[in-house]
Amino acid sequence: VLGATVPGLLQLMGREFLVLVVVAALVGCPLGWYVMTQWLQQYAYHVEVSPFALALATLACLFITITTVSYHALKASLFNPARSLRHE
User: Fold this and answer.
1) Separation CA 56–CA 47 (nearest Å)
2) Which of 14, 15, 71, 84 has the greatest CB tally within 10 Å of its CB?
């Protein structure tokens, strides 16, 4: 945090989370599509599972991840360490 730039903190904090979300999407989307398709086959009238819905869910997860990591990186970069040392 000391001397780090905001983009550096974003990259440092965000890379791990983005990799986890992308890996989860790569595993979860095909698995979710398969399970939902098999489950819906039981019904006489059923809808097709849209790839658009899976892509939208993945984009929503990425957006939430980026927003949360950005918030915490900005919070860490704007924190004054002297204030913390003063209270110890």
Assistant:
1) 17
2) 14
